[in-house]
Design goal:
two-stranded antiparallel sheet; Thioredoxin TrxC; globular; 144 residues; 4 helices; 5-stranded mixed β-sheet; Thioredoxin-like_sf; Thioredoxin_domain; alpha/beta
């Protein structure tokens, strides 16, 4: 069975999880906090494809470290991730470190937001949003 390696969003230590555990809440073996719920996971080329195939819809932000809109959107993304942890999973992809993913999804500017359901891209938005607009966009995307 192939394992997926992710960084725990709480303690930043590597955790290996099985693809079957994507439907469950996985506890970090280092800090005992939930790995997949409540905080965005830093995704990369090695784990992205498996993470977007989970049973919950997945919200991804493609971002850059030197991007002011990305940095101002980060706390909004994290707040919504915490509020919607039962319904959705949240991933962050640094485009400078993951150029192959940025190229595959034709990322031309950051932040770019995408929603996936069972591995299939459902929606894309090329901008940062205020919290209310972000939640409205998610609700519209998931209810269509």
């Amino acid at each position: 069975m192939k394992l997926i390696s992710v960084l725990c969003p709480h303690c930043q230590k590597s955790v290996s999880i099985s693809p079957q555990s994507l439907s469950n809440t996985v506890q970090c073996e280092h800090c005992n906090k939930p790995v997949l719920d409540g905080k965005p996971i830093e995704a990369d080329v090695g784990n992205f494809d498996m993470l977007i195939k989970g049973p919950k819809p997945v919200v991804v932000t493609f971002w850059g470290a030197n991007c002011s809109p990305c940095n101002s959107f980060k706390p909004i993304f994290e707040k919504v991730a915490s509020e919607k942890k039962k319904q959705l999973r949240f991933l962050r992809v640094n485009v400078q470190r993951n150029k192959a993913l940025a190229s595959r999804y034709r990322i031309r500017g950051v932040p770019t937001l995408m929603v996936f359901k069972k591995g299939k891209q459902q929606s894309v938005l090329n901008t940062a949003l205020r919290k209310k607009e972000f939640v409205d966009w998610l609700n519209d995307t998931l209810n269509s």
